[in-house]
Design a protein that fits this description.
Elements (H helix, E strand, L loop, with lengths): L2 H26 L4 E6 L7 H16 L8 E6 L6 H13 L4 E5 L5 H6 L5 E4 L13 H12 L6 E3 L3 H5 L1 H10 L4 E3 L2 H5 L4 E5 L1 H16 L15 E6 H6 L6 H6 L2 E3 L1
Parallel strand pairs: 1-2, 1-3, 3-4, 5-6, 6-7, 8-9
Antiparallel strand pairs: 7-8
Helix pairs in contact: 2-9, 5-7
């Protein structure tokens, strides 16, 4: 090997060695962003776990990994009253996050008042009846039982924190009073409800990650478009239909995205 070749190899090696500390320093000084997540349903609810898993998986695919370049603080509710929302929101805001992801009807006025300077991403469902306050089990049972006294009745259960937390109660009451009931989400059908049609909430949490990504990269929340659901699912519990003595038309079965036997 000629002296000039050895010299070139030495210079190349020296240049690479000089770059190593620079790369290490760049990695060490990467800014860790903070994300606060106010979730529902509860931590031990399979639906809540599926939602947060979809969100975190999508966020990681976009380059944000908890413990590396983002710190994620997730709060699971112990209750849904306004006071509890204020407490959770206050604790999250005190942590000085870059973005807050607030989901469901817990994204209410108390939270918004406490987070005027922090960008918020909502995954919102309407809950005009409870408006953020949880009705008791006794109140729900009395209301459904009173309604069931009428003839040829049926229920439509819309979205909201009350019916998510107490969904098994609604399903049990519908079965007890033999009320055909349509729900807003397939999780009710999976738990024994008759039929559901509504947005794919897991997909909404997946898509919420893209909003968080854009905000963390500097886009202004006010400039982001309103994002409506794009996927809707029809689910039918065939076993429940038989228990109610209902015959499901073949055309409806053919349209269903999921039929639970």
């Amino acid at each position: 090997m000629s002296p000039s070749t050895k010299r070139r190899e030495f210079i190349t090696l020296l240049g690479g060695a000089a770059a190593w500390p620079l790369a290490a320093r760049a990695q060490q000084t990467e800014r860790v962003r903070r994300l606060a997540v106010l979730m529902y349903p509860a931590r031990d609810d399979p639906e809540g776990q599926a939602r947060i898993a979809a969100f975190l998986d999508s966020l990681e695919q976009l380059g944000w990994t908890d413990g590396r370049n983002v710190r994620i603080d997730i709060r699971w509710p112990a209750g849904f009253g306004a006071d509890r929302v204020r407490q959770d929101a206050s604790e999250l805001v005190a942590a000085a996050p870059d973005v807050i992801l607030a989901t469901g009807n817990i994204a209410t006025a108390p939270l918004q008042q406490l987070t005027r300077t922090v960008p918020i991403v909502f995954v919102v469902t309407a809950d005009p009846v409870s408006n953020g306050y949880v009705a008791s089990r006794d109140q729900i049972e009395r209301a459904v039982s009173e309604f069931a006294r009428g003839s040829n009745g049926g229920l439509i259960v819309t979205a909201g924190g009350v019916v998510v937390v107490h969904r098994k109660l609604f399903i049990a009451l519908a079965a007890r009073h033999r009320l055909p009931t349509v729900y807003w989400n397939r999780m009710y059908v999976a738990d024994g409800g008759l039929i559901s049609y509504g947005p794919d909430t897991i997909d909404q949490y997946r898509r919420a990650a893209a909003y968080v990504d854009r905000i963390l990269k500097g886009e202004k929340p006010a400039d982001l478009p309103v994002q409506a659901p794009t996927r809707y699912d029809l689910a039918i519990n065939f076993k429940t239909a038989r228990a109610l003595g209902l015959e499901v038309p073949p055309t409806l079965l053919a349209l269903a995205d999921e039929v639970i036997e």
